[in-house]
Design brief:
single chain; mainly alpha; DNA polymerase, domain 1; 5 helices; 2 strands; 4% strand; RuvA_2-like
Length: 94
């Protein structure tokens, strides 16, 4: 019985625990600043450089974002054109 209740609770909470995804082209300043490693200065650079064609474009035009940071941001839910880093042309694989 306890296990069943725990499973029901976990199923009910899953949507609340799901990782939020934000697109770099439409995310608010607050959304961007909620990502690990993104403070006010980097959020401002992202906002000022929009729109981005793809991850390669973002990395080329936003100082401070190279492949390692792009991977970290993508893992935290940032998307460019709906795509995770490395998932499409313009997104470095690996």
């Amino acid at each position: 019985m306890k296990r069943r209740l725990l499973l029901l609770w976990a199923a009910a909470m899953a949507p609340a625990l799901a990782q939020a995804e934000f697109d770099a082209n439409t995310a608010s300043r607050a959304d961007l600043e909620s990502l690990p490693g993104v403070g006010p200065a980097l959020a401002q650079r992202l906002l000022a450089a929009r729109p981005f064609e793809d991850w390669a474009d973002l990395m080329r035009r936003v100082p401070g974002i190279k492949a390692a940071m792009a991977r970290k941001l993508s893992a935290a839910g940032l998307r460019v054109g709906g795509r995770a880093f490395g998932s499409a042309p313009g997104g470095e694989a690996g």
